């Protein structure tokens, strides 16, 4: 029996419009919640620990968890982007096809004319294209938690330790003799809401900065020796400093013996 039905036909405009509505479900909130949940669990672990040595295996399994989640989030984002790219490609190819009429029907049957195959287009290898478009991907919701968990063991060992990244700021005046100060140079108290300058990476407490800029909204950085002209808006939260202070406080209140340093001397 001769073939009478084409393998592929181009979609008509209405069907193409329907296709545009097909979207991967929005999952960024879910991943954000997972990240926050992990962070809460991390703090609960830190708060409830009785002996310093208990913490390492807990943090390790949390870090594994976060790494897996980050991988899944990336896979999900890639899949969603792949779907968008495939839709675009399919639509363009479909629109370039000759309209299906009684005259063109036979040509689609004997493949003189060809229509795109949606499944084939979806399955196409796009990793290079996706890589070049990663800036279009939403920021990872998990990587922030993941980063925190990666640096946590070192901070737990010594809340004032200089982390590898800190060394990038060569003129960082917070580093004095290889330690990070946990007290605000303005309030002279331990940071409560540490804010970091986007211009010079100097960290101060929110309270101190507010009073520092209250009379003169644009003035030099409060750090001695730093001449950057700043406003309050140049400062953003510093989660790493907040973590350092929280851990120092936990260790101090519980009198936990961590690392080699004798006294934490924080309060
Ligand atoms: Zn500064």
From TrEMBL:
- SUPFAM superfamilies, per this entry? RING/U-box
Q: Please give the PROSITE patterns that the UniProt record associates with this protein.
A: ZF_SP_RING
Which residues lie in coiled coils? 62-89
For this record, an example GO cellular component is: Smc5-Smc6 complex
Q: Name one Pfam family in it.
A: MMS21_N
Q: Where in the cell is it found?
A: Nucleus
According to the entry, every stretch annotated as the SP-RING-type domain falls at 169-250
- Kindly list the GO molecular function terms attached to this UniProt entry: ligase activity; SUMO ligase activity; zinc ion binding
For this UniProt record, the keywords arranged alphabetically read as follows: Coiled coil, Ligase, Metal-binding, Nucleus, Transferase, Ubl conjugation pathway, Zinc, Zinc-finger
Recorded metabolic or biological pathway in which this protein acts: Protein modification; protein sumoylation
**One of this protein's GO BP terms?**
protein sumoylation
Looking up InterPro entries in the UniProt record yields:
MMS21_N (IPR054753), Nse2(Mms21) (IPR026846), Znf_MIZ (IPR004181), Znf_RING/FYVE/PHD (IPR013083)
Recorded family membership? Belongs to the NSE2 family.
Q: What is this protein called?
A: Similar to Saccharomyces cerevisiae YEL019C MMS21 SUMO ligase involved in chromosomal organization and DNA repair
**Protein source organism:** Maudiozyma saulgeensis
